[in-house]
């Protein structure tokens, strides 16, 4: 198996090393793991692409490249430059430092990389490690992802729905903020919504008097509805959420047609 991996935390991120090890286990001794990751951190860029300026790419080592762009840029670089003559069988994005559950999905560059792969017709999985009191002080805060990642991916490859539709399914996996031995299992979930918390801004004055705004994240310890991703993670489970890039609110189509057509 030939696997392309990327992330949004950057080419030197510890979570990328975790994903390299997971991908090598999945690919097997006769497989190949190719890395194309952002040269600098790209957290929060979503599905952004560098449409109005070029992206520099550099080979750092065999099968290892850094691109000055977003995770989606890196997937495009991997598919149409680095691996243009031998496309990958699977694209993995992560392992993100922090969860990409609930509303975080909409901002996540990790999700953006997997989404771009799916739009290009390839099987894709995004992986993220929730942070919390149960794992932030561990010597390896990615322990849950490291020890359970390959198993979850294998189950998805064997049992997941890998359709060939225009907006094909990709998968969002979040590992709970716990030591690996305390993970309670896996739950298939919906994307949740954290009520009462959201992104915001915090203004600061620079020494020269200019005003700057820092983007602030909301609380991550608020559980979502039962059956959804963050609820499962905070309850000790790995969440697996099937996703599509189609943003149509299909449940409102009939009502709107009746009113407008």
Automatic annotation (TrEMBL):
GO terms for molecular function: 3'-nucleotidase activity; 5'-nucleotidase activity; exopolyphosphatase activity; metal ion binding; nucleotide binding. InterPro entries: SurE (IPR030048), SurE-like_Pase/nucleotidase (IPR002828), SurE-like_sf (IPR036523). It catalyses: a ribonucleoside 5'-phosphate + H2O = a ribonucleoside + phosphate. It is found in: Cytoplasm. Binds 1 divalent metal cation per subunit. It is an enzyme of class 3 (hydrolase). A divalent metal cation binds at residues 8-9, 43, 96. Keywords: Cytoplasm, Hydrolase, Metal-binding, Nucleotide-binding. Its EC number is 3.1.3.5. The keyword Metal-binding applies. Pfam families: SurE (PF01975). Its cofactor is a divalent metal cation. The keyword Nucleotidyltransferase does not apply. GO terms for cellular component: cytoplasm. Residues 3-195 form the Survival protein SurE-like phosphatase/nucleotidase domain. Nucleotidase that shows phosphatase activity on nucleoside 5'-monophosphates. Belongs to the SurE nucleotidase family. This is 5'-nucleotidase SurE. It comes from Roseicyclus mahoneyensis. The gene is surE.
